[in-house]
Specification:
Elements: H1 9-41, E1 47-55, E2 62-70, E3 76-85, E4 88-90, H2 95-103, E5 114-116, E6 123-124, E7 129-137, H3 141-153, E8 157-164, E9 170-174, E10 178-181
Antiparallel strand pairs: 1-2, 2-7, 3-4, 3-6, 3-8, 5-7, 8-9, 9-10
């Protein structure tokens, strides 16, 4: 005679509860990871450097400016900005003379009206711009701006910006806005 098997309904209910608990735990972990990524993205800074030359068409005078700008949606904590010329790091305070007298071959000693500041250690809020260097251009300002553009296009001059977000994640940005993550701020 065949024995009749009985279902243990309590065991089935317990196994179903364990399965549901494991599914809830997995869902919770996945949701937490998504929330952390969203939270980091909500304060993502995008620091870049830009330059501009505003030239008067009548007499070729104007202004020249190098800026660091935060185009992201969170604050950028600027750790350091370094100037590279042909791959070699230069002191920041040498930029005005190097730029105009050596690189752009400007021969007039009247270029004394300029503004220069270091942005190392500052915090840029979203959308904020800070001028690193600004000067009034003399009569041949259009040609100076063209020569700087040529230096920029041929990758002879570069500014490297090392910055981090409010969570401590660090980035480096170089010419053409190539942003890479960085462990430290060593310029390589």
């Amino acid at each position: 005679m065949a024995t009749k098997q009985h279902w243990n309904y309590e065991l089935i209910a317990a196994m179903a509860a364990v399965f549901i608990g494991i599914c809830a735990l997995i869902t919770s972990v996945v949701q937490t990871q998504i929330m952390l990524k969203q939270q980091a993205a909500s304060v993502l800074p995008i620091a870049q450097w830009t330059w501009s030359a505003n030239i008067n068409a009548l007499d070729s005078t104007g202004t020249f400016e190098l800026q660091v700008v935060n185009k992201g949606i969170g604050p950028a904590l600027i750790e350091q900005v370094r100037i590279l010329y042909q791959g070699e790091q230069l002191p920041q305070d040498s930029l005005p003379k190097l730029l105009f007298f050596k690189l752009l071959k400007y021969s007039d000693d009247s270029l004394t009206d300029y503004f220069w500041t270091s942005v190392d250690g500052i915090v840029l809020t979203a959308g904020e711009k800070v001028a690193m260097f600004k000067t009034n251009l003399p009569r041949d300002g259009f040609h100076l701006a063209q020569r700087f553009h040529h230096l920029y296009q041929t990758e002879k001059i570069d500014l490297v910006i090392c910055y981090k977000d409010v969570y401590g994640k660090r980035w480096q940005v170089r010419r053409e806005s190539k942003i890479t993550t960085a462990r430290d701020c060593q310029i390589k």
